Amino acid sequence: MLKSFGRTDFHNGPGAFATRIRLADGPLSLAWHHCAATADFLGDFFALRRATSQQAYTETRHGIGYLVNELLENAVKFGEPGDIIIESALDGDLFEVKIVNAISLETARNFQALLAELTASDPGELLIARIEANAADAGAGGSGLGLLTLMNDYGARLGWIFHDAGAGAGGSIGLDTFAALDLS
């Protein structure tokens, strides 16, 4: 099963400043605080490369930190047990990240339905509609508000590839989440 949504191409070349992190699942399962700590680390790590001014550093750290935190939280919240891999690169003003994890077949079906809507709609209009719908039903979940905020407020270009997770994966689906953020 190979299915893709959005933008899954990377433009940073071999000369980009890059890192790869594996969050290993183990006795202390991955949790929310791992997301924030990892996002803060990557925000600082890449912001130091753009520290031409305090403002450039702060904006870079915030943009990268918010983007990575949102995507990692989704990987932890909706993912199956297992490692999460974060590959990220900065080339000039272009930050790119790919997050790899596994999700259940049911989660994959639900997420694909959501992504079909998100990628076919105007992010600004859909964001307002989802905020209004969530205000009317406080128990609603899985609305895509975080992804819509990234697309609308930060100009993030997002993409997803669903693929077989491999032998022995217990019927789970591999999910590669791509994001690109212009920091200029």
Q: What general outline do the C-alpha atoms trace?
A: globular
Strand order of the largest sheet: 1-5-6-4-3-2
Task: Tell me the count of domains.
Answer: 1
Question: Structural class per helix/strand content?
Answer: alpha+beta
Could you tell me how far the N terminus lies from the C terminus, measured between alpha carbons in angstroms?
37 Å
Mean of pLDDT: 90
Secondary-structure element order, N to C: EEHHEEHHHEE
Q: Any idea of the CATH topology?
A: Heat Shock Protein 90
Helix amount: 40-55%
Q: Which features characterize this protein?
A:
single chain, 184 residues, alpha+beta, Heat Shock Protein 90, 26% strand
Briefly characterize the structure.
The chain has 184 residues and is of the alpha+beta class. The protein is built from five helices and six strands, in the order ββααββαααββ.
